[in-house]
Write a structure and sequence with these properties.
Layout: H1 2-19, H2 25-47, H3 57-80, H4 91-99, H5 102-116, H6 121-124, H7 142-153, H8 155-180, H9 193-202, H10 215-261, E1 264-267, H11 279-286, E2 288-295, E3 298-301, E4 313-318
Antiparallel strand pairs: 1-4, 2-3, 2-4
Helix pairs in contact: 1-2, 1-3, 2-3, 3-5, 7-10, 8-9, 8-10
Length: 320
């Protein structure tokens, strides 16, 4: 009986910290506490760099310590409930897989600097990676998943455009060195000295700490600025166009499939054993192909790595 109660508690904690649901007040409170802690931790980290606020440093320290303790508790609970994430392996192996996963490493990096590297500002900034966990709230929605798909699908085009930018940056640094070295030997000591200037020019940052003074250098600066605007726009255009294209296509295909081929639906009730299970696991369990998920009034693509939440309606079609 004790073991059953313990498992129920563990499963409930997993649902709160990993699954979440708008209908579940505990999950909403948990999400609010974590997100608030993330934002407070980062705000305090920045405010702590202002000498004018030194009289508040003790308050900042208290807030920082409190949020870190919350992060430690969350990290420990995620390790404890990892067996519900990695259901295909044993309890201890599941915990190890979570610790070495990207999410587990990010969690660890946000905690360790506070305890062991407090005196090193560069290491303390590692805690800013905690902001990446804000994406956790959107991980199960189409718009978030499509971004990853676009980056993978368009990786060759993106790599090519980045290569063009690097070549342009190296070429412009060599050219500006040739044009400005004699006039500004201190500013442009060698070809590598021009990399900083070429980078700020290509990306139109305009720091102004290093700039050409010769006629040839100024003409070159104008040309590189125009080339930079067009070159930098290439990867941006690839990603934005790919996002719109993929998202539109996925929505159209899924909606058409849901309309024409669905044969039924499954509603995940509050005490259902299906809460927290992967879509792939539910498809295997019921012998169906889950097409889309109706979640919180939003239609979500039924990716195999999405986990079922309380209140979800799984629209499926039977497998012949």
């Amino acid at each position: 009986m004790g073991m059953t109660k313990n498992k129920q508690i563990k499963k409930r904690i997993f649902e709160i910290i990993q699954i979440g649901s708008r209908e579940d007040m505990s999950s909403r409170i948990g999400d609010f506490v974590i997100v608030t802690s993330i934002l407070l931790n980062i705000v305090v980290l920045f405010l702590g760099t202002f000498e004018e606020l030194s009289r508040y440093f003790k308050i900042f320290k208290f807030i920082e310590t409190t949020t870190i303790l919350i992060f430690c508790l969350e990290y420990a609970l995620r390790i404890w409930t990892a067996e519900y994430i990695y259901t295909d392996v044993g309890k201890w192996r599941a915990r190890f897989k979570f610790i070495v996963s990207a999410e587990g490493i990010i969690d660890l990096l946000t905690i360790l600097p506070f305890f062991f590297l407090y005196g090193f500002a560069a290491f303390r900034m590692l805690r800013v990676v905690r902001i990446l966990h804000l994406f956790r709230l959107n991980m199960n929605y189409d718009s978030f998943n499509v971004i990853t798909s676009v980056l993978i699908e368009k990786k060759n085009q993106i790599a090519s455009s980045i290569f063009i930018i690097v070549v342009l940056m190296l070429a412009s640094s060599l050219c500006i060195y040739g044009a400005e070295h004699d006039a500004q030997p201190e500013a442009f000591k060698n070809a590598f000295s021009g990399i900083w200037w070429s980078l700020s020019t290509i990306f139109t940052v305009g720091y102004g700490d290093i700039y050409p003074i010769t006629a040839a250098g100024k003409i070159m600066g104008v040309m590189i600025t125009f080339l930079g605007v067009g070159t930098v726009a290439i990867p941006t255009g690839i990603i934005s166009a790919g996002f719109v294209e993929n998202y539109t296509e996925m929505q159209r295909n899924r909606l058409n499939e849901a309309k024409n081929k669905t044969t039924g639906s499954i509603t995940i009730e509050k005490k259902s054993e299906d809460i927290g299970k992967l879509i792939s696991e539910l498809e295997k369990k019921y012998g169906v192909n889950i097409v889309v998920i109706l979640r919180d009034g939003v239609m979500v693509l039924a990716d195999v790595n999405v986990r079922a939440k309380c209140g979800d309606t799984l629209i499926y079609r039977e497998i012949p």
